[in-house]
Structures are given as structure tokens and as C-alpha cells.
Amino acid sequence: MKIVLAIDGSDYSKMAVNELGAIPLPAGTEVCILNVFENPMLAVPMGGTLGNYYEEAISNARKSAEAIVNDASKLLKIENDKLSITTVVVNGIPKSAILEKAEAFDADLIVVGSQGHGAFSRFLLGSVSQSLATHADCSVLIVRKRSI
Known about the structure:
The structure is a single chain. By secondary structure, the chain is of the alpha/beta class. Helix 3 (about 95-105) packs parallel to helix 5 (about 130-135). Strands 3-2-1-4-5 form a five-stranded parallel β-sheet, with helices on both faces. It has one domain: HUPs (Rossmann fold). The protein has helices at about 10-20, 55-80, 95-105, 120-125, 130-135, and strands at about 1-5, 30-35, 85-90, 110-115, 140-145. The two termini are about 35 Å apart.
């Protein structure tokens, strides 16, 4: 079985990591943990220059994304040491990048967290999980954060 676990470091994606860790997966299961970061918004102070601010912002975003996927990898290994885990960090638009990775990886399943937006928020913001469920060629597990 091949699984793409798409995470962003939010509480919602942490729930997805925990849920995947709780599923009894067969030996030989391959998990690709993916983080897609978008270019940070740039703000130039009045009278300032960009200098190397852009490169530093991208570098910092990449380092943060790498820490997120590495932490998730460690947690999954604790739950199931028989998993084959790879981590990938890419710069792009999450909806597209996740679908592209799932296709290239020949995934059987995509696992993501859901932020639980209402209909109006989905209309304004779009929903990565909704887009994946609609457009993926494989099954999609959308993990919702349980309300207490």
C-alpha cells in the first residue's frame, strides 16, 4: 500500500498523523509525508529594500516544513516501525502539489486533516481536502478534529 500524508503542521494535520499512526497497516506499506509551503507574502518597509529578504523567507519556510515532516516521520515510526517512510517538502500550491505527488507516487490513499470550514469559508478560501476528494484518482481520508 502507498500512502501520501499531506501535512502543514497545524493541529488538523497533527490529527491526521495520529489517525494514520493508529491504523494497522500491512508490512511493506510506503508512506510519503508531504509538506507544501507557499511563497511567503512579502512586505517591504517604507524606504526599505528587499535585499536577500525573499531568499531568507523561502529558506526559513523550507526549514520549518522540513521540521514538520521529520517530526511526523518520527511519530509514525514509533507507532509502526515496519513502515517505509519518505519525506518531501515542495514549494507550490497545496491542492495541485498534493495531487501531483499522489499521482507520481502511485498512491492508493491520500491522508489529510480538515480545518472544518463552513460552506461560506470554503467558497471564499477553497478547501484543500475538498479539492483532493473531488479530483484525486485514489481514495482520500479526511481526518476531522473531534470536538469535545
